[in-house]
Amino acid sequence: MDVAEFRRRGKEMVDYVADYLENIEQRPVYPDVEPGYLRSMIPAEPPLEAELYEDVLRDVERVIMPGITHWHSPYFYAYFPAASSFPAMLADMLCEAIGCIGFSWAASPACTELETVMLDWLGKMLQLPEDFIAGTHGQGGGVIQGTASEATLVALLAARCKAVRLVQASDPKISEADIISKLVAYTSDQSHSSVERAGLIGGVKMKKVPTDQHYAIKGDVLRNMLEEDKAAGLIPFYLCSTLGTTPSCAFDPIAELGPICNAEKIWMHIDAAYAGSAFICPEFRPLLNGIEFADSFNFNPHKWLLINFDCSTMWVKKRSDLIGAFKMDPLYLTHENQESGLVTDYRHWQIPLGRRFRSLKMWFVFRMYGLTGLQAHIRKQVGLAKEFESLVRADKRFEICAEVIMGLVCFRLKGSNKLNEVLLKNINHTRRIHLVPCQLSGRFVLRFAVCARTTESRHIQEAWQLITQLTYELLQEQPL
Ligand SMILES: *Cc1c(COP(=O)(O)O)cnc(C)c1O
């Protein structure tokens, strides 16, 4: 493909993408394929000779589209949203064209510098404390990680390194392995599975703090666990608290947990993967009160802030905590400005070396929507969730299972878990809408998350109509 053909094909691809998104509602939201469906549809061997572009594109419709779960369909209500917008897609095209690997300042100064400034912009939209803003002289600042899972792990590894140094400072004879075997990290029984996984990867014990009736950690429960563990000779060093848990969008009281962590020299990381985006709205910002006690904070603009995957923004109060934990300086990566104190080398802030120019899509989206446009998006989706909630509440056969604060509604039929499992299966089998379940207090619960940017009231009404129709049919067969 030469540049002339690229010019033509590129325009056709934009048309294909625009048509796809414009007509996405007409496709079944969930695919009708069996595991292994794809292998038989394409050759077992790679092509020896070049093929025609038309043939490749034809196979997109034949092979790929039948196996796609359409996350941007307004009938998609599963998991949490995957953000998407046209400005972000255009910026990503440019990112691919520049194609730099921005591991250091010198590897592409704009890639690094725009990222630092975009994290400052976003930090200001969230009204983060000054400590988290890089500015020109700050000790803190932000970085784009690929996912919230990586942010949780990076924070845990930095905390582990800091804890080891702290213990060794008072007792130089104790070995690192000895200290690590005594370290304990904490999170709640509602936190995302990636937190437990960070403990496994980081080789430290991870304890789950039981939550209260609101699915949140209580300060005194945490304090008791810490006292017991310290009395047993263990060393508490890390807490990952959640703002907006995955099962039910519950919020840990970070203003209560933060002072406990600070007093015990425990690193507090906050995972707000989904809910973080909503803190740009003043009415949701109080849920972030207590952020001043945190050492690190992360959320996914790629979930709810109209910036396509991947873009998981993480801030730290002391960037030296991250850089100090993972620094490596082979000669081929050093550059003449790195000791100037004026540049950031993001390779020290993350696990991989390579990184894409992801701040471009933040810049495009922030400028094309403005803060008010982004706030309007959040508020609209919360409004749609409230609309769904009132439909559920008006039907006595159903119950709401957790307070609806943002764009997630947890609900179930009053009755057995089995009944709800069958209802969900029937819903998903229609392929007209798509939902996933969660478990809350031992009960099987349906999660309805407002996801696609183009979801409107009529989609919510249609979804509810389908659910009630299937409920009617189900109850004919198996009464409550
Ligand atoms: C979605 C989610 C995650 C995982 O996000 P990734 O970016 O895919 O790692 C972590 N924590 C919470 C609370 C989430 O909702």
Question: Can you walk me through this structure?
Answer:
There is one protein chain. The termini are far apart. It is globular and about 70 Å long. The strands form 2 sheets. A 7-stranded mixed sheet has the order 1-7-6-5-4-2-3, sandwiched between helices. By secondary structure, the chain is α/β, with parallel strands linked by helices. Helix 9 links the parallel strand 4 and strand 5. The chain is built from 14 helices and 11 strands. The structure holds pyridoxal-5'-phosphate. Pyridoxal-5'-phosphate binds next to helix 5.
Helix/strand/pairing category: alpha/beta
Q: Count the domains.
A: 2
Bound molecules: pyridoxal-5'-phosphate
Shape: globular
Instruction: Give the strand tally.
Output: 11
Q: From the coordinates shown, what is the CATH architecture of the largest domain?
A: 3-Layer(aba) Sandwich
What percent of residues adopt helix (DSSP H or I)? 40-55%
Order of secondary-structure elements: HHHHEHHEHEHEHEEHEHHEEHEEH
Tally of contiguous helical segments: 14
CATH class of the largest domain: Alpha Beta
In angstroms, what separates the terminal alpha carbons?
62 Å
CATH topology category name of the largest domain:
Aspartate Aminotransferase, domain 2
Uncertain residue ranges: none
GO molecular function: aromatic-L-amino-acid decarboxylase activity; pyridoxal phosphate binding
Protein name: Aromatic-L-amino-acid decarboxylase
EC number: 4.1.1.28
Pfam family, one: Pyridoxal_deC
